[in-house]
Amino acid sequence: ALISAAIGGAFCTSALAFAVTDLAEKGYLTFLTNALPALQPQGGTWVDFFDMLWSPEAPALGLFAGSKYNPVVEGRVYSIDRMADVGLWLIFFVVGSAVQLRRLRPPAVEDESRKPLLGELPR
Fold it and tell me: End-to-end distance of the chain based on CA atoms, in angstroms?
């Protein structure tokens, strides 16, 4: 249940990141470029976005890749895209795990004291 939630969350997150970045690259998210004029989205294939979740060495892709909006802490640049993607992945993982673990739980035992002793009564 946990492995499928982790892999499924990674698939969903990478697909969303790929789609949003692709829309921004094609100019469909003008409200975003108007609000953040220095934004230069860097796209790639969907597999590149999937790889970015699993490998810290993978190049950063997305809306904020290579922009001045990425925070710098002690000389190291942290990718907003990677942080947002991992955060969304965590949300998908937690929700998916909760749903699947709930379905694996055995059903609640019926209260035997409320059942008729001789079975169903005729009507």
Answer: 45
DSSP state of 67: S
Q: Is residue 88 part of a domain?
A: yes
Position 63: which residue type?
Answer: L
Put simply, whether the predicted model's pTM sits higher than 0.70 gets the answer: yes
pLDDT tens-digit readout, 95-117: 999 999 998 887 767 667 777 67
Q: How confident is the model at residue 85 (pLDDT cuts 50, 70, 90)?
A: very high
Nearest to residue 54, comparing CAs of 97, 86, 22? 86
If one counts the domains in the chain, the total is: 1
Residue 96 included in any domain: yes
Does residue 32 sit within a domain? Answer: yes
| E-state strands within the chain | 72-73, 76-77
Angle subtended at Cα 72 by Cα 79 and Cα 34, rounded to the nearest 5 degrees: 60
Question: For residue 35, what pLDDT band results from cuts at 50, 70 and 90?
Answer: very high
- Please check whether residue 85 lies inside any domain of the structure: yes
Token reading at 93: 């993982």
